[in-house]
Amino acid sequence: MAALRCPGGQGRAVALTYQTSYMPQQIVKRRSRGFICVNAHPEGCRRNVERWVAGVRGEVPAGQAGPKNVLVIGASTGYGLASRIAAAWGYGAKTLGVFFERPPEGDKTATAGHYNTVAFHSLARNDGLFAAGINGDAFSDAVKRQAVEIIREQMAPVDLVIYSLASPKRTDPRTGQVYNSALKPIGQAFTNQTIELDSGKIVSVTLQPANENEIADTVAVMGGDDWRFWMNMLLEEKLLAEGARTVAYSYIGPEITWPIYRDGTIGQAKKDLERAASDLDATLAKNLGGNALVSVNKAVVTQASAAIPVVPLYLSLLPVVMRRKNLDEGPLEQMRRLFTDFLCTGSPPKLDEARRMRLDDREMRSDVQADVTALWPQVTTENLRSVTDFAGFQREFRGLFGFEVDGVDYEQPTETDLHW
Ligand code: NAD
Asked: Which residue's CA is the nearest one to ligand 1's atom 8?
Protein backbone atom coordinates (compact mmCIF):
# COMPACT_ATOMS: atom_id res chain seq x y z
CA MET A 1 0.00 0.00 0.00
CA ALA A 2 1.66 3.17 -1.09
CA ALA A 3 -0.42 6.15 -2.10
CA LEU A 4 1.55 9.08 -3.36
CA ARG A 5 -0.06 12.48 -3.45
CA CYS A 6 2.20 15.38 -4.12
CA PRO A 7 1.17 17.43 -7.14
CA GLY A 8 3.78 20.10 -7.67
CA GLY A 9 3.00 23.66 -8.67
CA GLN A 10 5.09 25.57 -11.18
CA GLY A 11 8.23 27.19 -9.90
CA ARG A 12 7.62 26.61 -6.25
CA ALA A 13 6.20 23.13 -5.86
CA VAL A 14 3.43 22.89 -3.33
CA ALA A 15 1.51 19.76 -2.50
CA LEU A 16 -2.18 20.49 -2.75
CA THR A 17 -4.71 19.63 -0.12
CA TYR A 18 -7.93 18.66 -1.76
CA GLN A 19 -11.25 17.47 -0.60
CA THR A 20 -13.66 15.33 -2.55
CA SER A 21 -16.82 17.04 -3.77
CA TYR A 22 -19.00 14.63 -1.78
CA MET A 23 -18.32 15.36 1.83
CA PRO A 24 -19.81 12.86 4.23
CA GLN A 25 -20.36 14.42 7.60
CA GLN A 26 -20.81 12.41 10.72
CA ILE A 27 -20.70 12.76 14.45
CA VAL A 28 -17.53 10.97 15.46
CA LYS A 29 -17.54 9.47 18.93
CA ARG A 30 -14.49 7.78 20.36
CA ARG A 31 -14.50 4.04 19.84
CA SER A 32 -12.01 1.90 21.71
CA ARG A 33 -10.74 -1.63 21.70
CA GLY A 34 -9.39 -2.00 25.19
CA PHE A 35 -7.45 1.19 25.79
CA ILE A 36 -6.64 1.84 22.13
CA CYS A 37 -8.85 4.17 20.09
CA VAL A 38 -9.86 2.53 16.82
CA ASN A 39 -11.09 5.71 15.17
CA ALA A 40 -9.93 9.32 15.05
CA HIS A 41 -11.52 12.77 15.02
CA PRO A 42 -10.36 14.92 12.10
CA GLU A 43 -11.15 18.22 13.79
CA GLY A 44 -9.36 17.22 17.00
CA CYS A 45 -6.32 16.14 14.99
CA ARG A 46 -6.37 19.45 13.10
CA ARG A 47 -6.45 21.42 16.35
CA ASN A 48 -3.51 19.42 17.68
CA VAL A 49 -1.44 20.21 14.59
CA GLU A 50 -2.48 23.88 14.70
CA ARG A 51 -1.39 24.08 18.34
CA TRP A 52 2.02 22.62 17.50
CA VAL A 53 2.45 24.94 14.53
CA ALA A 54 1.61 27.92 16.77
CA GLY A 55 4.18 26.63 19.25
CA VAL A 56 6.94 26.98 16.67
CA ARG A 57 5.96 30.04 14.66
CA GLY A 58 8.08 32.95 15.82
CA GLU A 59 9.47 30.81 18.64
CA VAL A 60 12.90 30.05 17.21
CA PRO A 61 15.79 32.49 17.60
CA ALA A 62 15.59 35.18 14.89
CA GLY A 63 18.23 34.79 12.21
CA GLN A 64 19.13 31.22 13.19
CA ALA A 65 19.83 29.27 10.00
CA GLY A 66 18.09 25.90 9.71
CA PRO A 67 17.74 23.04 7.28
CA LYS A 68 16.19 23.79 3.91
CA ASN A 69 15.19 20.37 2.59
CA VAL A 70 14.12 17.81 5.13
CA LEU A 71 13.05 14.18 4.82
CA VAL A 72 11.15 12.89 7.85
CA ILE A 73 10.63 9.12 8.01
CA GLY A 74 7.77 8.47 10.45
CA ALA A 75 6.29 11.95 10.00
CA SER A 76 2.60 11.66 10.86
CA THR A 77 2.51 11.41 14.66
CA GLY A 78 4.68 11.82 17.76
CA TYR A 79 8.28 12.87 17.49
CA GLY A 80 8.38 12.67 13.68
CA LEU A 81 5.42 15.04 13.26
CA ALA A 82 6.87 17.41 15.85
CA SER A 83 10.22 17.39 14.01
CA ARG A 84 8.52 18.07 10.70
CA ILE A 85 6.61 21.02 12.17
CA ALA A 86 9.75 22.41 13.83
CA ALA A 87 11.66 22.25 10.52
CA ALA A 88 8.84 23.72 8.42
CA TRP A 89 7.50 26.52 10.61
CA GLY A 90 10.71 27.15 12.50
CA TYR A 91 13.01 27.43 9.49
CA GLY A 92 10.80 27.46 6.37
CA ALA A 93 12.12 24.04 5.30
CA LYS A 94 10.61 22.06 2.47
CA THR A 95 9.54 18.74 3.95
CA LEU A 96 8.87 15.29 2.58
CA GLY A 97 7.07 13.10 5.11
CA VAL A 98 6.92 9.30 4.99
CA PHE A 99 4.37 7.48 7.13
CA PHE A 100 2.07 4.46 7.17
CA GLU A 101 -1.52 5.47 7.82
CA ARG A 102 -5.01 4.27 6.94
CA PRO A 103 -7.03 6.73 4.84
CA PRO A 104 -10.79 7.13 5.41
CA GLU A 105 -13.05 4.58 3.77
CA GLY A 106 -16.79 5.15 3.48
CA ASP A 107 -17.95 6.22 6.89
CA LYS A 108 -14.92 4.67 8.57
CA THR A 109 -12.57 7.37 9.78
CA ALA A 110 -8.89 7.46 8.87
CA THR A 111 -6.14 6.99 11.42
CA ALA A 112 -5.01 10.02 13.41
CA GLY A 113 -1.75 10.22 11.46
CA HIS A 114 -3.70 10.59 8.23
CA TYR A 115 -5.74 13.50 9.62
CA ASN A 116 -2.61 15.05 11.14
CA THR A 117 -1.06 14.94 7.69
CA VAL A 118 -4.16 16.49 6.08
CA ALA A 119 -3.88 19.34 8.58
CA PHE A 120 -0.12 19.67 8.11
CA HIS A 121 -0.45 19.94 4.33
CA SER A 122 -3.36 22.35 4.54
CA LEU A 123 -1.53 24.68 6.96
CA ALA A 124 1.69 24.39 4.94
CA ARG A 125 -0.12 25.35 1.74
CA ASN A 126 -1.68 28.37 3.47
CA ASP A 127 1.76 29.48 4.60
CA GLY A 128 3.48 28.84 1.26
CA LEU A 129 5.55 25.95 2.57
CA PHE A 130 6.38 23.00 0.35
CA ALA A 131 5.05 19.72 1.75
CA ALA A 132 4.99 16.34 0.07
CA GLY A 133 4.08 12.99 1.55
CA ILE A 134 4.30 9.29 0.90
CA ASN A 135 1.88 6.98 2.62
CA GLY A 136 3.36 3.50 2.55
CA ASP A 137 5.80 1.09 4.13
CA ALA A 138 9.08 2.94 4.72
CA PHE A 139 10.89 -0.41 4.93
CA SER A 140 9.97 -1.22 1.32
CA ASP A 141 12.04 -0.48 -1.78
CA ALA A 142 8.97 0.98 -3.51
CA VAL A 143 8.54 3.76 -0.95
CA LYS A 144 12.26 4.51 -0.99
CA ARG A 145 12.14 4.84 -4.78
CA GLN A 146 9.17 7.22 -4.53
CA ALA A 147 11.11 9.34 -2.07
CA VAL A 148 14.06 9.46 -4.48
CA GLU A 149 11.79 10.67 -7.29
CA ILE A 150 10.17 13.39 -5.20
CA ILE A 151 13.47 14.67 -3.84
CA ARG A 152 15.06 14.66 -7.28
CA GLU A 153 12.15 16.34 -9.04
CA GLN A 154 10.67 18.64 -6.45
CA MET A 155 13.24 19.32 -3.76
CA ALA A 156 16.90 20.23 -3.75
CA PRO A 157 19.30 17.73 -2.19
CA VAL A 158 18.29 16.97 1.34
CA ASP A 159 20.29 18.54 4.18
CA LEU A 160 18.50 16.80 7.06
CA VAL A 161 17.00 13.32 7.37
CA ILE A 162 15.01 12.54 10.51
CA TYR A 163 14.47 8.84 11.17
CA SER A 164 11.52 8.48 13.57
CA LEU A 165 9.87 5.16 12.80
CA ALA A 166 8.10 3.21 15.52
CA SER A 167 6.76 0.04 14.01
CA PRO A 168 5.70 -3.35 15.36
CA LYS A 169 6.93 -5.21 12.29
CA ARG A 170 9.12 -5.04 9.23
CA THR A 171 9.29 -6.98 5.99
CA ASP A 172 12.87 -7.15 4.79
CA PRO A 173 12.74 -6.23 1.08
CA ARG A 174 15.86 -8.32 0.37
CA THR A 175 14.45 -11.60 1.68
CA GLY A 176 10.72 -11.04 2.13
CA GLN A 177 11.09 -12.17 5.72
CA VAL A 178 8.68 -10.59 8.19
CA TYR A 179 10.09 -9.60 11.58
CA ASN A 180 7.87 -8.82 14.58
CA SER A 181 9.27 -6.76 17.41
CA ALA A 182 8.71 -7.83 21.00
CA LEU A 183 8.78 -5.70 24.14
CA LYS A 184 10.37 -8.10 26.59
CA PRO A 185 13.13 -8.27 29.17
CA ILE A 186 16.28 -10.25 28.44
CA GLY A 187 17.81 -12.98 30.59
CA GLN A 188 15.19 -13.14 33.32
CA ALA A 189 11.54 -12.39 33.94
CA PHE A 190 10.69 -8.87 35.08
CA THR A 191 7.97 -8.13 37.61
CA ASN A 192 6.79 -4.66 38.50
CA GLN A 193 3.61 -2.73 39.04
CA THR A 194 1.81 -1.18 36.15
CA ILE A 195 -1.51 0.44 35.35
CA GLU A 196 -4.07 -1.88 33.85
CA LEU A 197 -5.17 0.74 31.36
CA ASP A 198 -8.76 -0.46 30.79
CA SER A 199 -9.69 -0.64 34.44
CA GLY A 200 -7.35 1.98 35.91
CA LYS A 201 -6.11 -0.53 38.48
CA ILE A 202 -2.57 -0.91 39.73
CA VAL A 203 -1.58 -4.50 39.12
CA SER A 204 1.58 -6.52 39.23
CA VAL A 205 2.79 -7.66 35.85
CA THR A 206 5.39 -10.29 35.07
CA LEU A 207 7.03 -10.31 31.66
CA GLN A 208 8.81 -13.43 30.55
CA PRO A 209 12.25 -13.01 28.99
CA ALA A 210 12.67 -12.93 25.23
CA ASN A 211 14.25 -15.78 23.34
CA GLU A 212 17.12 -15.23 20.89
CA ASN A 213 14.78 -14.97 17.90
CA GLU A 214 12.65 -12.32 19.56
CA ILE A 215 15.74 -10.28 20.37
CA ALA A 216 17.06 -10.56 16.80
CA ASP A 217 13.66 -9.76 15.30
CA THR A 218 13.23 -6.64 17.46
CA VAL A 219 16.67 -5.45 16.35
CA ALA A 220 15.68 -6.12 12.73
CA VAL A 221 12.57 -3.93 13.11
CA MET A 222 13.69 -1.10 15.39
CA GLY A 223 17.48 -1.19 14.95
CA GLY A 224 19.60 0.67 12.44
CA ASP A 225 19.35 -1.59 9.37
CA ASP A 226 16.64 0.34 7.55
CA TRP A 227 18.14 3.72 8.50
CA ARG A 228 21.40 2.60 6.83
CA PHE A 229 19.41 1.63 3.71
CA TRP A 230 17.78 5.02 3.48
CA MET A 231 21.00 6.96 3.96
CA ASN A 232 23.12 4.82 1.63
CA MET A 233 20.45 5.05 -1.05
CA LEU A 234 20.25 8.84 -0.78
CA LEU A 235 24.04 9.04 -0.90
CA GLU A 236 24.29 6.79 -3.95
CA GLU A 237 21.56 8.77 -5.70
CA LYS A 238 23.49 11.97 -4.91
CA LEU A 239 20.47 13.43 -3.15
CA LEU A 240 22.27 14.52 0.01
CA ALA A 241 23.56 18.07 0.26
CA GLU A 242 27.10 18.98 1.27
CA GLY A 243 27.19 18.80 5.10
CA ALA A 244 23.97 16.73 5.24
CA ARG A 245 22.93 15.44 8.63
CA THR A 246 20.72 12.65 9.84
CA VAL A 247 19.23 12.07 13.27
CA ALA A 248 17.45 9.01 14.72
CA TYR A 249 15.64 8.93 18.04
CA SER A 250 16.33 6.82 21.08
CA TYR A 251 15.36 6.53 24.72
CA ILE A 252 17.23 5.54 27.87
CA GLY A 253 14.92 6.36 30.77
CA PRO A 254 15.07 5.62 34.49
CA GLU A 255 16.26 2.44 36.17
CA ILE A 256 12.66 1.44 36.97
CA THR A 257 12.10 0.81 33.26
CA TRP A 258 15.54 -0.56 32.34
CA PRO A 259 14.58 -4.27 32.47
CA ILE A 260 11.82 -3.65 29.93
CA TYR A 261 13.45 -0.83 27.98
CA ARG A 262 17.18 -0.15 28.06
CA ASP A 263 18.19 -3.71 28.97
CA GLY A 264 15.30 -5.35 27.12
CA THR A 265 14.71 -6.23 23.46
CA ILE A 266 13.98 -2.63 22.43
CA GLY A 267 17.18 -1.51 24.18
CA GLN A 268 19.15 -3.95 22.01
CA ALA A 269 17.53 -2.40 18.94
CA LYS A 270 18.48 1.08 20.15
CA LYS A 271 22.08 -0.06 20.67
CA ASP A 272 22.05 -1.25 17.06
CA LEU A 273 20.69 2.16 16.05
CA GLU A 274 23.65 3.77 17.81
CA ARG A 275 26.06 1.49 15.94
CA ALA A 276 24.38 2.54 12.69
CA ALA A 277 24.78 6.19 13.71
CA SER A 278 28.47 5.68 14.21
CA ASP A 279 28.93 3.97 10.80
CA LEU A 280 26.74 6.49 8.98
CA ASP A 281 28.57 9.32 10.72
CA ALA A 282 31.87 8.12 9.28
CA THR A 283 30.35 7.71 5.81
CA LEU A 284 28.69 11.11 5.76
CA ALA A 285 31.76 12.83 7.19
CA LYS A 286 33.99 11.27 4.53
CA ASN A 287 31.70 11.92 1.57
CA LEU A 288 29.97 15.18 2.42
CA GLY A 289 31.42 16.59 5.62
CA GLY A 290 28.09 15.66 7.22
CA ASN A 291 27.14 13.64 10.25
CA ALA A 292 24.74 11.10 11.72
CA LEU A 293 23.59 11.36 15.30
CA VAL A 294 21.23 9.83 17.80
CA SER A 295 19.05 12.09 19.90
CA VAL A 296 17.94 10.60 23.21
CA ASN A 297 14.51 12.10 23.74
CA LYS A 298 12.30 12.45 26.79
CA ALA A 299 9.47 10.00 27.54
CA VAL A 300 6.24 11.41 26.10
CA VAL A 301 2.78 9.99 25.49
CA THR A 302 2.61 8.63 21.93
CA GLN A 303 0.90 5.65 20.37
CA ALA A 304 4.23 3.81 20.51
CA SER A 305 5.23 4.59 24.10
CA ALA A 306 1.82 3.86 25.62
CA ALA A 307 2.15 0.27 24.37
CA ILE A 308 5.24 -0.47 26.49
CA PRO A 309 4.39 -2.27 29.75
CA VAL A 310 5.08 -0.27 32.95
CA VAL A 311 5.72 2.92 30.93
CA PRO A 312 2.14 4.31 31.32
CA LEU A 313 2.60 4.43 35.10
CA TYR A 314 5.90 6.24 34.63
CA LEU A 315 4.23 8.59 32.13
CA SER A 316 1.51 9.33 34.70
CA LEU A 317 4.05 10.18 37.42
CA LEU A 318 6.74 12.00 35.44
CA PRO A 319 4.66 15.06 34.45
CA VAL A 320 3.52 15.54 38.05
CA VAL A 321 7.15 15.85 39.13
CA MET A 322 8.36 17.81 36.08
CA ARG A 323 5.49 20.30 36.18
CA ARG A 324 6.20 21.05 39.84
CA LYS A 325 9.72 22.00 38.78
CA ASN A 326 8.54 23.83 35.67
CA LEU A 327 10.48 21.42 33.45
CA ASP A 328 7.82 19.50 31.57
CA GLU A 329 7.96 19.23 27.79
CA GLY A 330 5.91 17.47 25.14
CA PRO A 331 7.11 16.26 21.73
CA LEU A 332 6.86 19.73 20.20
CA GLU A 333 8.88 21.47 22.93
CA GLN A 334 11.47 18.69 22.69
CA MET A 335 11.83 18.96 18.94
CA ARG A 336 11.89 22.75 18.98
CA ARG A 337 14.77 22.48 21.44
CA LEU A 338 16.49 19.86 19.27
CA PHE A 339 16.58 22.38 16.43
CA THR A 340 17.24 25.59 18.37
CA ASP A 341 19.77 24.26 20.90
CA PHE A 342 21.48 21.42 19.04
CA LEU A 343 21.05 21.35 15.27
CA CYS A 344 20.86 25.01 14.31
CA THR A 345 23.27 26.80 16.64
CA GLY A 346 25.90 27.19 13.95
CA SER A 347 28.33 25.11 16.06
CA PRO A 348 28.70 21.35 16.46
CA PRO A 349 25.98 20.11 18.85
CA LYS A 350 26.83 19.25 22.43
CA LEU A 351 27.11 15.45 22.76
CA ASP A 352 27.46 13.04 25.67
CA GLU A 353 30.35 10.59 26.07
CA ALA A 354 28.64 8.19 23.63
CA ARG A 355 28.18 10.97 21.01
CA ARG A 356 24.44 11.35 21.61
CA MET A 357 22.38 14.50 21.89
CA ARG A 358 20.59 14.43 25.25
CA LEU A 359 17.13 15.93 25.01
CA ASP A 360 16.23 13.85 28.06
CA ASP A 361 18.49 15.98 30.28
CA ARG A 362 15.58 17.46 32.24
CA GLU A 363 13.79 14.11 32.65
CA MET A 364 16.99 12.48 33.86
CA ARG A 365 17.93 15.20 36.36
CA SER A 366 18.73 13.47 39.63
CA ASP A 367 16.13 15.48 41.60
CA VAL A 368 13.41 14.59 39.06
CA GLN A 369 14.30 10.90 39.15
CA ALA A 370 14.58 10.89 42.96
CA ASP A 371 11.04 12.27 43.23
CA VAL A 372 9.63 9.75 40.73
CA THR A 373 11.42 6.89 42.48
CA ALA A 374 10.04 8.00 45.85
CA LEU A 375 6.48 8.19 44.53
CA TRP A 376 6.58 4.93 42.55
CA PRO A 377 6.03 2.46 45.44
CA GLN A 378 3.37 4.67 47.00
CA VAL A 379 0.94 4.35 44.06
CA THR A 380 -2.10 2.15 44.65
CA THR A 381 -5.37 1.71 42.78
CA GLU A 382 -7.04 3.87 45.43
CA ASN A 383 -4.67 6.82 45.19
CA LEU A 384 -3.79 6.50 41.46
CA ARG A 385 -5.67 9.66 40.57
CA SER A 386 -4.31 11.78 43.41
CA VAL A 387 -0.65 10.67 43.45
CA THR A 388 -0.25 10.43 39.67
CA ASP A 389 -1.77 12.32 36.76
CA PHE A 390 -3.37 9.23 35.23
CA ALA A 391 -6.30 11.41 34.14
CA GLY A 392 -3.83 13.61 32.24
CA PHE A 393 -2.22 10.53 30.69
CA GLN A 394 -5.63 9.27 29.54
CA ARG A 395 -6.59 12.68 28.17
CA GLU A 396 -3.30 13.02 26.35
CA PHE A 397 -3.58 9.51 24.93
CA ARG A 398 -7.11 10.14 23.67
CA GLY A 399 -5.91 13.49 22.37
CA LEU A 400 -3.49 11.64 20.07
CA PHE A 401 -6.58 10.41 18.22
CA GLY A 402 -8.22 13.85 18.21
CA PHE A 403 -10.56 13.17 21.16
CA GLU A 404 -10.99 15.31 24.28
CA VAL A 405 -9.21 18.16 22.53
CA ASP A 406 -10.06 21.65 23.78
CA GLY A 407 -12.30 23.68 21.52
CA VAL A 408 -13.82 20.77 19.58
CA ASP A 409 -17.58 20.29 19.75
CA TYR A 410 -17.92 16.53 19.59
CA GLU A 411 -21.70 16.76 19.17
CA GLN A 412 -21.27 18.44 15.79
CA PRO A 413 -21.01 16.42 12.56
CA THR A 414 -17.61 16.65 10.95
CA GLU A 415 -16.19 15.77 7.53
CA THR A 416 -14.24 12.55 7.66
CA ASP A 417 -13.42 11.93 3.99
CA LEU A 418 -10.44 14.26 4.00
CA HIS A 419 -7.28 13.77 1.96
CA TRP A 420 -4.01 15.58 1.68
P1 NAD B 1 4.67 7.25 16.96
O2 NAD B 1 3.93 5.95 17.09
O3 NAD B 1 3.97 8.48 17.43
O4 NAD B 1 5.10 7.51 15.43
C5 NAD B 1 5.53 6.49 14.58
C6 NAD B 1 5.59 7.00 13.16
O7 NAD B 1 6.13 5.94 12.35
C8 NAD B 1 4.24 7.36 12.54
O9 NAD B 1 4.39 8.46 11.67
C10 NAD B 1 3.89 6.12 11.70
O11 NAD B 1 3.03 6.36 10.59
C12 NAD B 1 5.29 5.75 11.22
N13 NAD B 1 5.41 4.35 10.80
C14 NAD B 1 5.25 3.23 11.52
N15 NAD B 1 5.50 2.14 10.76
C16 NAD B 1 5.81 2.61 9.53
C17 NAD B 1 6.18 2.00 8.31
N18 NAD B 1 6.28 0.68 8.18
N19 NAD B 1 6.41 2.79 7.23
C20 NAD B 1 6.29 4.14 7.31
N21 NAD B 1 5.99 4.78 8.46
C22 NAD B 1 5.75 4.02 9.54
O23 NAD B 1 6.07 7.02 17.69
P24 NAD B 1 7.05 7.94 18.55
O25 NAD B 1 6.85 7.64 19.99
O26 NAD B 1 7.03 9.35 18.08
O27 NAD B 1 8.46 7.26 18.16
C28 NAD B 1 9.31 7.75 17.16
C29 NAD B 1 10.74 7.45 17.56
O30 NAD B 1 11.04 8.17 18.76
C31 NAD B 1 11.00 5.97 17.87
O32 NAD B 1 12.27 5.62 17.42
C33 NAD B 1 10.97 5.94 19.39
O34 NAD B 1 11.71 4.87 19.94
C35 NAD B 1 11.62 7.28 19.70
N36 NAD B 1 11.37 7.78 21.06
C37 NAD B 1 10.10 7.85 21.57
C38 NAD B 1 9.92 8.29 22.88
C39 NAD B 1 8.54 8.35 23.50
O40 NAD B 1 8.45 8.48 24.72
N41 NAD B 1 7.47 8.31 22.72
C42 NAD B 1 11.02 8.70 23.66
C43 NAD B 1 12.29 8.67 23.09
C44 NAD B 1 12.46 8.21 21.80
From this structure: 74
Domain extent for 41: 32-191+212-307+330-361
Q: What is the CATH number of the domain that holds 244?
A: 3.40.50.720
Q: Lowest mean pLDDT of 17-21, 160-164, 261-265, name the range.
A: 17-21
CA–centroid distance, 139 to ligand 1, in Å, is 13
Judged against a pLDDT cut of 50, whether residue 334 lies above it is answered with yes
**Into how many domains does the chain fold?**
1
Mean pLDDT of 108-128: 98
Q: What is the pLDDT of residues 144-179, one digit of tens each?
A: 999 999 999 999 899 999 999 999 999 999 999 999
Ligand 1 atom closest to 80 (CA): 26
Ligand 1 centroid distance, CA of 382 (Å): 33
* 299 CB near ligand 1 (under 6 Å): yes
Whether 125 has a pLDDT exceeding 70, the answer reads yes
Average pLDDT value for residue range 291-306:
95
State the pTM of this model.
Answer: 0.94
Active site includes 249? no
Is position 372 within any domain?
A: no
Q: Could you tell me which of 389, 199, 250 has the C-alpha nearest to residue 313?
A: 389
The reported pLDDT for the residue numbered 22 is 58
In-domain check, residue 185: yes
Parallel/antiparallel/unpaired status of strands 69-73 and 94-99: parallel
